Amino acid sequence: MSGEDGNKQYRNSVFCSYFNDPKRLLSLCNAVLGTNYTDASKLNINTLEGMFFDDQKNDISCTIEQHFLVLIEHQTSINENMPFRCLSYVAELLNKLVEDKQKIYRKSLIHFPSPKFIVLYDGDAKEPLEREMRLSDAFWGNCHSLELIVNTYNINHSFQQPPLVKCKYLNEYSILVGKVKEGIKAGLIRRNAIANAVKFCLANGVMQGYLEFHSEEVFNMLALQWDKDSAMKASYDDGREDGIEEGLQLGQNQGVESVAVNMILDNEPIEKICKFTKLSFERIKELAALCKK
């Protein structure tokens, strides 16, 4: 089986696959929530399919006792629209938690676990060690009626963020990703950089048990991740202020709709694609529907 054929089988990212384990996820929850939970049986993974990434799933949501946690991993620049996307996510998830819809019309208050939204960033763009993104920043003027806060952590291994120190599984995952980057920067092709990173981790007891059973899947998932990352950087630079002008110039040369299709395939929000390409909301939705066929 070729690497390209193998990639098609792995919709999960390594992050989602690795932390889709109660023990590892419980440790990560404790690290970002500041809790000390010990009973993994109380952890309920309730990730909604296709909410953030349609073709590559790298988000996890779970509930544990009084907490509801959404974890999202980013390999490229952080999406500033994440608070709005999390708002859509949590609205659907909370709706699913209310099995009896008649309860919302009754007098008694419905209680929900306390939500926490976390973005774990391991890309190469310069990002602070920790920051907040607020939904209120998207509104014109001051807004106090509706707020949603997303906490972002730069988990590149060289920074040794508190979550990396507190959660050995996240720290080991960060080592794996960092070793792939080191290999690429040293001039290795992606496939060799990934293979060397996996070998290093196995030889040094990093993600040992997981890699012993899933090394082939990890190779394919990482190859897919870096292929998507390179494709995004080649089509447009999301981190520069003049990106809109560059994108429009590219659209004039190659066709605005082809730019829109690239952004759709990169799972960019429709609102951003409209602003970037000046195409109508309806046309973007039509192109998105064609991409799914």
Computed over alpha carbons, the radius of gyration is 20 Å
Which strands sit side by side, in order, in the main sheet? 1-2-3-4-6-5
Tally the helices: 12
| Helix fraction bin | 40-55%
Mean pLDDT: 79
Please state roughly what percent of the residues sit in beta strands, choosing from under 5%, 5-15%, 15-25%, 25-35%, 35-45% or over 45%. 5-15%
Low-confidence stretches: 1-11, 235-254
Rough shape? globular
Q: How does the major sheet shape up? A: 6 strands, mixed
Q: What is the succession of H and E elements?
A: HHHEEEHEEEHHHHHHHH
Distance between the termini: 25 Å
Oligomer status = single chain
Short structural description:
This protein is of the alpha/beta class.
Topology overview:
Layout: H1 3-7, H2 14-18, H3 22-33, E1 43-45, E2 59-64, E3 67-74, H4 82-97, E4 114-121, E5 130-134, E6 149-154, H5 162-166, H6 168-185, H7 190-203, H8 208-235, H9 243-254, H10 256-265, H11 270-277, H12 281-292
Helix pairs in contact: 6-7, 7-8, 9-10, 10-11, 10-12
Structural description of this entry:
There is one protein chain. This protein is α/β, with parallel strands linked by helices and 293 residues long. The protein contains twelve helices and six strands. It has helices at 3-7, 14-18, 22-33, 82-97, 162-166, 168-185, 190-203, 208-235, 243-254, 256-265, 270-277, 281-292; strands at residues 43-45, 59-64, 67-74, 114-121, 130-134, 149-154. Strands 1-2-3-4-6-5 form a six-stranded mixed beta sheet, with helices on both faces. α9 packs across α10 and α10 (256-265) crosses α12. The radius of gyration is 20 Å and the shape is globular. The two termini are 25 Å apart. Mean pLDDT is 79; it is low at 1-11 and 235-254.
